[in-house]
Amino acid sequence: MDIVLQQLVNGLTLGSVYGLIAVGYTMVYGIIGMINFAHGDVYMVSAYITAIVLALLSFFGIHSFPVVILFTLLLTIIITGVYGWTIERVAYRPLRNSTRLAPLISAIGMSLILQNYVQIAQGARSQGVPTLLDGTLRMHIGDGYVQLTYMKVFILVAAFSGMGILTYIIQKTTLGRMCRATQQDRKMASILGINTDRIISYVFVIGAAMAALAGVLITLDYGSFDFFVGFVIGVKAFTAAVLGGIGSLPGAMLGGVILGLAESLFSGLVNTDYKDVFAFGLLVTILIFRPSGLLGKPAVEKV
Amino acid sequence: MLIRRLLENDRGGQIVLLVLLALLVVVPLLSLGVSDTSVWHLSTYNVTLLGKYLCYALLALSLDLIWGYCGILSLGHGAFFALGGYCMGMYLMRQIGDRGVYGNPELPDFMVFLNWDHLPWYWHGFDMFWFAMLMVVLVPGLLALVFGWLAFRSRVTGVYLSIITQALTYALLLTFFRNEAGFGGNNGLTDFKDILGFPVQADTTRIGLFIASVLALMLGYLLCRLVVTSRLGRVIVAIRDAESRTRFSGYQVEHFKLWLFVLSAMLAGIAGALFVPQVGIINPGEFSPLNSIELVVWVAVGGRATLFGAIAGAFSVNYAKTWFTSLYPEAWLFALGALFVLVTLFLPKGLVGLAGQRKWRRTPKAALSGLPQQQEYAS
């Protein structure tokens, strides 16, 4: 029993991070209908930025946890946001009126460029960061217990706050309304005076910022990373986005959590080695029965 | 007669087939007929390299058939290639016999190493060439049949189909990495000795494999041409351009897609089977999603829905890759990435689009493949 609870808690943490990255895929897909293959690598870049910011802070002798984490989050999110904006500007915007295939290929190219830029600039060996937050929370349930490191608690709080803030921005603010309008009908939105190019840029920045949040959290928790981490986690997050119904924001978060939970439960109860096989098997099964994902609307096509 | 009909209105295809015919004559001549010291001599290394490109071209062709003509973007087509390769690899492993490091006449080395005492059931029969060749087409075909039947019947399309094909190849990658799967785990199958009794490393065998690859590519091209120029091909293009409309016109869309998907998977399997004896190894890395993505890029760079564009793309991107890897080993992926971005920015129709643009200016009617081209459809 306690092993199930333990894996549920682990899965929730993992899933919330998948959800954060999935948001970037789903928003970009919703607004311009392309798969941003470089998104996983934006996440990877944010892991490196985290390490650099941490190193700088410790160089200046700042060690208090709240200050360090605040600065790291802030700086990483801002710098990664700039990356997101630049990528859209350089590789996708010039292709706005070309075929749908074109940005897909240029995204693959962008992903290769980012990976190799980081590999050349930072070296191919895997890097590490020190543990910032020690200690474990232990809850006794019956005769067993569930334990949770403080770092995991922090991840849960930060990830769900991030999703909360994003939902608020999209649902309640003017910017969010403009985003939704652009997603529904780009032409009409621009006729009504929305600068859709700028909105698309914002969406890329928001996606990159969410990936950066995930990057900081995962890097602080795992402690090590290399230039290739973006790929697997990118595929997983994309899976999460598709699982929830691509284009749907709550779907991405839900998909992330479901994928994380399924993966942890499977690895805890059945077999760790095949957890990824199981995760993708689940995706295939769900799509066969619900082809447009859990919360996605089936595409209506005019014939 | 048939060939003539197939290549009518297909200037690109005529050029490709002529080049292939020329390769068929020139390469064996330059490799075996010219002495080693001559500048005209073609080393075995280069013959194998060309052979490898030919296999990639056949693979690209198989993807162009479903992606270019039916709009099915498979991001896991490398899986069928790898499966075909593994079938061939299993045959080659069984041919080693007792010449392995452990000298076990029945079990391949890695099984002896893992302390297995008998051959797993799915390894039986692979000592026979005809059986292995049958499996080369049947295994990828069967997987495509089951997978496609489930996916197309549920009307999984567009990006969803792309991601589940990617998930499929990723799952296979992870499975084949496991030692207990019985396919050599991380190291895959290698250290082959001979094929049909001929030593794999020998120059003459390499030439033989090269000729087989050229012939396979030529036949594959003609077969694809036969499909896309037939009435069936017209329905397939109609499905690409307006799936629902085709369905409402009374066609069983799923059957057409499934049929084409299986055919494409079989072609990919054959490409894989020809690839393995030439490079001398097959390992789970071939299942990596990155390989399948690269494959998509070959087709896109070459030019989609033209068939010969896929061949041109496979050759040019892989040549650039080989060239860059030897010149700047650190920066080649970087350069490849830049190439993709630049090609899409400046050559949206791919390399064959370059030639096509000039032609279109003269006669606007002459589409590249003789089939209606559509500017925009779901990627």
TrEMBL record, chain A:
Q: How does it sit in the membrane?
A: Multi-pass membrane protein
The record's subcellular locations are: Cell inner membrane
**Keywords of the record:** Amino-acid transport, Cell inner membrane, Cell membrane, Membrane, Transmembrane, Transmembrane helix, Transport
For this chain, the family text in UniProt reads:
Belongs to the binding-protein-dependent transport system permease family. LivHM subfamily.
Show the InterPro entries listed in the entry. Answer: ABC_transp_permease, BCAA_transport_permease
Pfam families registered for this protein in UniProt: BPD_transp_2
Protein name per the record: Branched-chain amino acid transporter permease subunit LivH
Chief subcellular location: membrane
Work out whether the entry's keyword set contains Transport: yes
Q: Which residues cross the membrane?
A: 12-35, 42-62, 68-87, 149-170, 199-219, 225-246, 253-271, 277-296
From TrEMBL, chain B:
Q: What organism is the protein native to?
A: Pokkaliibacter plantistimulans
NCBIfam families noted in UniProt? urea_trans_UrtC (TIGR03408)
Looking up InterPro entries in the UniProt record yields: ABC_transp_permease (IPR001851), ABC_transptr_urea_perm_UrtC (IPR017778), LivM-like (IPR043428)
Alphabetized UniProt keyword annotations: Cell membrane, Membrane, Transmembrane, Transmembrane helix
Tagged with keyword Transmembrane helix: yes
State where the protein is found. Cell inner membrane
* PANTHER family xref list: HIGH-AFFINITY BRANCHED-CHAIN AMINO ACID TRANSPORT SYSTEM PERMEASE, SLR1201 PROTEIN
What highest taxon heads this organism's lineage?
Answer: Bacteria
Q: Kindly list the residue ranges recorded as spanning the membrane.
A: 12-33, 39-59, 66-92, 128-152, 159-177, 207-228, 258-276, 296-319, 331-352
Q: How does it sit in the membrane?
A: Multi-pass membrane protein
Instruction: State what protein this is by name.
Output: Amino acid ABC transporter permease
- Major subcellular location class: membrane
Q: Is Transmembrane helix found in the keyword set?
A: yes
